[in-house]
Amino acid sequence: MLSLKATGRAGTIVLKNIEIKKKLSFLDYIFGGCEMGLHIFVDFTLSNGKPDQPNSLHYLDPQKNQYDQAMRSVGSVLQNYDND
Prior knowledge:
Helix content is about 25%, strand content about 15%. It is of the alpha+beta class. It has one domain (about 1-80). A two-stranded antiparallel sheet has the order 1-2. The longest helix is centred in the C-terminal third of the chain and has 13 residues, at about 65-80. The chain starts with a strand and ends in a 6-residue tail after the last helix.
């Protein structure tokens, strides 16, 4: 609640019920005991192309497969925060 009292050119500000909240970071949650788990879901429908075609998201070559690259990138970071 904020109330203002004007007295001429100067004024008084009265603050009641002030609450200060700390903005928590990712590491605050981890150090506080928060556990993380990684779940990956892949759309294997043919709408993303056939697995034997190089332009498909499911192409069987791991060096060129966008899904595989994304899962490895995210997994390599999150594995450090998963205790099991």
